[in-house]
Amino acid sequence: MTAQLVLASASPRRQELLAQLGIRCFVQPVDIDETPFLNEAPFAYVKRMAAEKSAACLAFSVDKLPILAADTTVVLQGEIMGKPKNQRHAQEMLAQLSGTTHQVYSAVSLRKVTQPFESPNHWEAVSITEVTFRHISSAEITAYWKTGEPCDKAGGYAIQGLGSIFIEKIQGSFSGVMGLPLFETAQLLAKQGIYIIK
Asked: Which CATH class is domain 5-190?
């Protein structure tokens, strides 16, 4: 079946979420520097990352399809927590998250060129979700690392996996914590005439 958009991400979770909406996509990952700027606020950071990903994808895309990119980051007390570099880093992050409430910022960027040499239309949205962790023991953190799940996840956990057992409460978008807020994504796609429910 014909793809409806280009997804500028290799994330299987984002692909699954789009499939859940019945959206057919062509996957075209991009590789950009994801280092935050000095004193960059989390909201500005995720918005910039999603926008840079969609722009990078647009630069070498040969299709005329809309390009969708996203970025998700975990924020604790205003500090951006990236993906764990190693076991020790993951253990430190999870110990910090234990027994606290943190925020998950998830940005979506959609670009589309309608005519040759025309500046692309660009739409953006950001979802912010509050996640409360129960207290986690050091033994649980070590055992969780050994499952392999935390390795490539922002904040060192996956809400859709075993990491869900640490979550006491969530206020906001479950799919946003997974990596693609579906409410905001559907709103942006509608601007391109891609409707989830017709």
From this structure: alpha beta
How confident is the chain (198 residues) per 10-residue block, as mean pLDDT? Answer: 89 94 93 94 98 92 87 96 93 97 98 70 96 97 96 93 97 97 96 84
**Report field, pTM of the whole predicted structure over 0.85:** yes
Active-site choice (33, 63, 71, 152): 71
**Radius of gyration from C-alpha coordinates of the chain:** 17
What's the length of the chain? 198
Active-site annotation holds for 71 = yes
Compute the half-sphere exposure of residue 10: CA atoms within 13 Å on the CB side of its CA: 5
What token pair was written down for 83? 């993906």
Q: Where are the domains of the chain?
A: 5-190
Please check whether residue 166 is in contact with residue 4, taking contact to mean a CB–CB distance below 8 angstroms.
no
